[in-house]
Design brief:
Length: 669
Amino acid sequence: MWSVKLSTRPSQRDRLTKSRAPWVLLAALLMGICVFLPSKGYSLERDPYMIRSLIGKIQLEYEKSTATENNKTTSDASHFKQTYSLDTRGNLLSRYLIIYDAGATFADTNYKSSGIANFDTMDVNYYLRTTFLPKSAVPLTLYGSYDDQKISGLSIPSWHNRFIYGLNWFSRLKQFPTTTVSAERVNDKTPTTDTLTTNFRLTADKDLGPTENQIDYAYQLSDDQKSAGFSSSSGASLRNLTHLSKNTTMSIGATRNDTKNKIDSPTNPRTTDITLQGVSMSLASKPSQEFNQSHNYTYFSNKSTGTSVGSTYSGDMDYRFSDRLKSHLGLTYFENRNEAATSTTKSQTISTADNIAYNITGNLSIAESVMYSRITTNADSGSAANVGGRSNLVLLTTMSYSKRLDWATFGSSYGLGYTEDNTSLKTGGKGIQQNVAASLGGIQVIPQVGFNTSAYYSSIKNLSGNISGNSYGYSASAYNRSWRRYVTLNASYDKSAKSAWITVLDQKRETYRFTALSEYFRNTRIRANAEHTNDFNAINGFINTSKEDAGIDHQRRLFGGYLNLSVSFDHMTNRSSGIPQKVFNTIYELKYTRYLLKSMMWQAHARRTERTDQATFVNATSIENSIFLPLRSWLFSVEHAYSVTEDSQRDLRENRIMFKASRTFFRVY
C-alpha cells in the first residue's frame, strides 16, 4: 500500500504569495480611494487644457448714491447690475490635437437718476478661441468674438456692435526662421459710424552662424464706411547683429513707416502722407584689456508737408597704456536739414572731449584735455545773446592730488589752459582759463558729527576780443555719526554762480536742505524735510522756492486687527517776479482691517485732506467701510462711503452704499 508523507513546511510559491499580500491590499486601497474620491477632491493639472472644465459665474450688484450741495439735494442715483457668464475650456480628441476656450457673458444694468431719464444697458458677449496642434512646432490659433451693447430708455437710441476675428500662427522649425504671423479684422458699428479695421503683422528671426537676424512688418487699415474716409499705416524694420569675435559685435538696422490719412469732407477734403525712415549702425569692441571702443551712427528722414533729414554719430575710445597712463577720445555729431514751403533751415553740431591722464604717484596725477564744440545754423541769430552759431575750444592741463588723512579725505586740483570762444556775429575772443577745486570728505573733527565740504573756482582772463567770465561754487554738509539708532540727520548748503560774456548764460543758485528720519519707535516712521532755493537766470529772472514737509506713519495690531495711522504736512512757497504763491497741504489717514467672525473681514478707511492757497481752500473728508463675507459658495460684500467736500464755492456731501453678491460654479466633465 502506498503511503504519502505531507510536509508541513510552506512551499516557495506560498511564501511569495504571503509576502505580496500587504502590497496587494495597499494597491487595492489606493485604487478604491481614487475611484470613490468625491468630485471636490480633484486637483487641477498645471496644464488647464488636460481636462474639460465648465466655469459659471453670477454677480449681482446694487448701488445707491446721494449728493447734497449747499444743503440741497442735487442728485439721487441708483443702479442694479446683474452679470452671468459661462466659460468652458478643454481639448478635442487630444491635448496635442486641438484645445479651445469658449464662453458667453450677459450683463444688464438698470440706472435710475433724479437728474436724467432712467435707462437700461444690456451687454452680450460671445467668444471662441481654438488652437490646432498646440504642442507642435507650428501651432495655429483661430479666434473670434462678438459684443453687442444696447442702451434703451434714452430719447436717442444708442448701441454699439463689435465683431472681431483673426488668427495667430507660430512656426519654430529648425530649418526655417522662427516666424509669427497675426491677422485680425475688427468691425465697429454705432448709429453714426461703421468702421472696419484690418491689422496684420509678420515677424521672423533666424540665426545664421555668428549673426542674429530679425524682420518685422506691420500693416493697419481703418476704413469708415459712412464717412468715406480712411487711414492706413505700414511699417517694416530689419535688424542684423553679428558677433565678429568674442569681444566685438556689430549691429545694422533699418526701418520705414508710411502713414496716410484721407478725409472726404465736403468743405475741406484733404489727404496727409507721412513717411519716416532711418538706418542705424553700431559697433562695440573690446579686443583687449587695454582697449575698448563703441560707435553709433543713425540716419533719418521725415517727409510730410515738409522734409526733415538728419544724421547723428557718437563714439568713444579708451586705451590704457599702463596702470598709470590712460586715454579717452569722445566725439558726437548731429546734422539736420528742414525744408519747408518758404524756407530751408540747416543746423550742425559737433563736439569732442579728449584727454590723457597719468598717475605720477598714488596721490598725484596729471591730465591733458582738449574740448571742442561748434554749432552752426543759417537761422536768424537775432542778437549777441543768441548762441545759435558758436564755436568753443579749450586746451586744459590739470594737476590733481588726493590723500587720506587721519581725520578726512582730501582732494584738490588745479587747471590751466587756453580757450577760444566765438559766435556767428563775429564776437568773441581768446583767453586764459584757470580752474581750482578742493574738497574734504568724511571730516571727523567731532566724533558725533561728520562733515563734507568742497569748493571750485573757474575764470577766463581776456587776451583779445570781449571774451571773459568766471564761475564758482561751494558746498558744505553735515550728518550725525552718533545717535543714528534714534534719528538720522543731514544738512547741506550749496551755492554756485556763473558769469559769462554771453549774458543769456548768466545764472546763480543757492540751496539749503535739511532732512531728518527716525525709526526708533517700534512700527513708527517719523520724517521731516526742508529745502529753500534762490535761483536766478537771465531768461526767467529771480525765482525763490521753499518746500517743507513732515509726516509720521504708525502700524500696529489692535483688537485683533491691523491699524495704520499717518499724518503728513507739506508747504510750498514760490516767488517769481515778486509774486508769492503759497500752497499748504495736510493729510490725515486711518486704515483698519480685522476679521469680525471666522471668515467675515471688515475694512475701514478714513481720510482728511486740507489744501489752501492765497485765494481758495479745499477741505475733503471721506469715511469708507467694507465688509466681505464668504458663505459656502457665495461671496457677499457691503461697502459704504461718505464724503464731505468744502471749498470757497460750495459744500458738497456724498453718500454711497453698494451691495455685491457673487458665486462661481466649477465642473469637470
